[in-house]
Amino acid sequence: MSTRTVVTAVETFPLEAPLLDGGYGASKTRLPVRAATLVKVTTSDGTAGWGESFGPPRLIAAFLAEQAQALLGQPVDIRENLILDRLSLGYHHTSGGPHVAAASGIDVALWDAQARAFGVPVAHLLGGRLHDRVDAYASSGYVTATRDAAEFRDTMLAHAADGFTSVKIKIGLTPEEDRRRTLASREAMGDDGLVIVDYNSNATVASVRRSLDRLRDLDPYWVEEPLPPEDTAGWRELRDLHLPLSGGEALYTRYGFRDPIAEHRFDIVQPDIAKCGGFTEAQAVRQLAAAFNLRLSPHCWGTGVAQAATLQLLSAVPRAPFGMAGGQPLLFEFDQGPNPLREGVLATPVKAEQGTVAVPDGPGLGVEIDEGWVRAHRLADHRVLVR
């Protein structure tokens, strides 16, 4: 008679990396630090799994400490019930926020641990590995303190020199500056490249229309987060733009995505594994999107752990509704902003080659954590260990 594998220890690693020159970000705000919280789950068979939670580490670590207590002794293979039960019993906390981001890191770690125990990549548990490589876009064009046009243009040219033919840039500043940024990106990527524009919800229906009137001729591949997610009426109004809209990075769980997907508020669905509820909820969101014939392109703006998890999800996304020819590429968001955490947490960081990224093929997330580096950089004033 076999003994069921259970969780025996949970350890969290709040991380921060200060940025130079006032940081960088989007039109809504600049961030002075890059931050994340890693989660390590150890099981009764000696396997360790890693996950990542998005959000302010001092806040997320506290939620993780509370959730970790309840996780001890629980079977590793029970994941969906873990999240749904927590949402149901804690309905007064709503289905979104830092408590869900914390649960996301735990969920990813549980999937990683079980896949490692089986000796297979997580993609094998998500339905099977369908893609060995995926196209990547350079997530860049951030807003800096200077907002220097020449510096921005040089950044776009550097991405092209690195082999990227697709880029996402931050706009939502002024219509004139939005056009200058988009034009510089189009010139760098060429006529056949992809240029994605991201407002990060720093707009109204009227300001989005005015901005897009100035840059529509530059063929934006999709328009990301033109409005805050709660502006449901505004999203409906923007359907007459006849440009692909994307959103979802600020949504949590299948419940948060249900109505936007059912109402076709956007064309490209963008769950973030490190905040939406981990693999469990990202997989549910993927299936919801498929049911409504919408594309999936996950948001990814974290460390190498979040990158590896996102690549595992992408590698299991079916080709449907497209056939053997034509269709749209699966796109991996490859953050290009300075972030010591992104490369530091992995023994071998994720790399792009000529605009594509190989899906890690090792067990679990497919990557190895540089645990010495992670422990050395954990916030000294916020250690959480549950045993």
TrEMBL record:
SMART domains linked to this entry: MR_MLE
Highest taxon of the lineage: Bacteria
UniProt cross-references to PROSITE patterns, sorted A to Z: MR_MLE_1
Domain Mandelate racemase/muconate lactonizing enzyme C-terminal positions: 149-244
Keywords for this protein: Lyase
PANTHER family linked: D-GALACTONATE DEHYDRATASE, D-GALACTONATE DEHYDRATASE-RELATED
Protein name, entry field: D-galactarolactone cycloisomerase
